[in-house]
Amino acid sequence: MNGFSNVNGAARRIANAPAIGDPFGVFSRDIDRVLGSFLGRGSLRPASAQGDGDVADTTRILNPRIDVHESDDAIELSAELPGVEQDDVDVSVLEGVLTVKGEKKSTRESNEGARVVERSYGSFTRSFRLPENVDADNISATFKNGVLTLSLPKVAEQKPEPRKISVAGA
């Protein structure tokens, strides 16, 4: 054998496992490489964990994904908050800015003994400037299955009506 294997029509070098060492470490790096190539990244591990065998710091910034849909009478904002409890979410409006705050808490006190930690924990904040046609006093929120849904009703558009002004004679 020449040290290459044909995978999906491309020649790939076969990695030899070390005779001594941690077989799971090699397996973990290989899985990272393979999954990372499917996802368009070089690796699934954070940059702070690449090159060393240590567990990465999990205090990365959380940035919930948001979808916004608009209809004639409302705007609906949905935020994915997997692993976040409803009591750990705070939604507020101040001076035309909608703010969603929350915290994803770890279920473990420490990462001692962890082999791989890819999930993120910590606080997040997302803020949005509301359009002028949103009725900020009637915004409602629901939380179900890790998704926060905000309904932002629009103010009924008032068309100006001409006011008749009487003309007095002199």
Describe this structure in a few short sentences.
This protein is mainly beta and 170 residues long. The chain has one helix at 23-38; strands at residues 4-7, 10-13, 66-70, 74-80, 89-94, 97-104, 122-129, 140-144, 147-153.
Explain the overall architecture:
The chain has one helix and nine strands. It is mainly β and 170 residues long. It is rod-shaped.
How many strand elements?
9
Provide the succession of SSEs. EEHEEEEEEE
Q: Strand order of the main beta sheet, please?
A: 3-4-9-8
Shape from CA axes?
Answer: rod-shaped
Unreliable stretches: 1-23, 37-60
Oligomerization: single chain
Cα Rg: 27 Å
User: Gap between N and C termini, in Å?
Assistant: 112 Å
The percent of residues in helical segments reads under 10%
Instruction: Sketch the major β-sheet.
Output: 4 strands, antiparallel
Content-based structural category: mainly beta
Give the DSSP E fraction (strand runs of 2 or more residues).
25-35%
H/I helix tally: 1
The chain-level mean pLDDT equals 74
Could you name the key traits of this structure?
mainly beta; 9 strands; disordered N terminus; 170 residues; 9% helix; 4-stranded antiparallel sheet; 3-stranded antiparallel sheet; 1 helix; single chain
